[in-house]
Design goal:
Blueprint lengths: L5 H17 L5 H10 L6 H8 L3 H11 L13 H8 L1 H17 L12 H20 L4 H10 L3 H11 L1 H11 L3 H9 L3 H11 L4 H8 L15 H16 L15 H6 L5 H18 L7
Helix pairs in contact: 2-3, 2-6, 3-5, 4-5, 6-8, 7-8, 7-14, 8-13, 8-14, 9-12, 10-11, 12-13, 13-14
Length: 296
Amino acid sequence: MSEIDEKSRELIKTRIISKLKDIKSFPQFVIETMKKLNDPESNAADVAKSLSRDEGLVLRILKLANSAAYGMSRNISNISEAIALLGYKSVSNIILAATVYSAMDKGLTGYALDRGELWRHSLMVAYTSRHLAKLTEKVSTEDAYVGGLLHDIGKVILNDYVRFGYGIIVKMVEEKHIPFTEAESQVLGFDHAMIGEILVERWEMPEGYRISVAYHHKPNELPEDKKQYQPLLDVVTLANTICLMLGIGLGADGLQAYMFPEPIERLGIKNFDGLFSEMIDFVSNVSNDMGDMAGL
């Protein structure tokens, strides 16, 4: 197949939109728990009561609270105490990671990603984003983590359609020398960043996360009225590129990743070569410690 005619393209767009409509929001208990975590008047007991409906998440939070990283000299067995110890932001991130894990932990043949590769890439970008945020002090480390975790969520929806038009998309990339995402959009009417933005908006998440998903392949095109999210976007964009440069979750589109110099400059990074060398060690250490692939 050398091209997709307009009728087929419109049919693909219709099916993608239909599939998006079928995507459910987060489970109700997750929504309730996240609301409590964002409610300044709630306490750890309120959050624990809502969270107790998922035994797996309770065990995951207790495990993290008892990990050696937090230097605890005694066992934490009470979920309310664990929540208070970890803090609302950390607990929120654990819940989010565990919730999106089931969607990401699958093979995406359209993007040439084996099962678990999208999850590993997304989690590694999340960790790297958080690390860059800490180094540059331009954005909240926890916001950076969530932005990194969600940046490629649109691939889950678009996978089947990319597989259908893969030959055409790759041919456009090679012959026209355009980014994979642009070829996606020309062939399918959407790219995975656009689809991801729709999902994040549907899940009623903060606007900064929507921005970091929508623009992570075009960080210099952020509208003027959204410039407050530029540091978050720059951190996620840079983290994604670094992970791709290190071969983490390359897939079909990873080789076309472009290193934008502007985010590096805006983040105040003076010695990128030195940073990259540091990130090689950081990613290696995180990979060794990433035993629980469901979000710890």
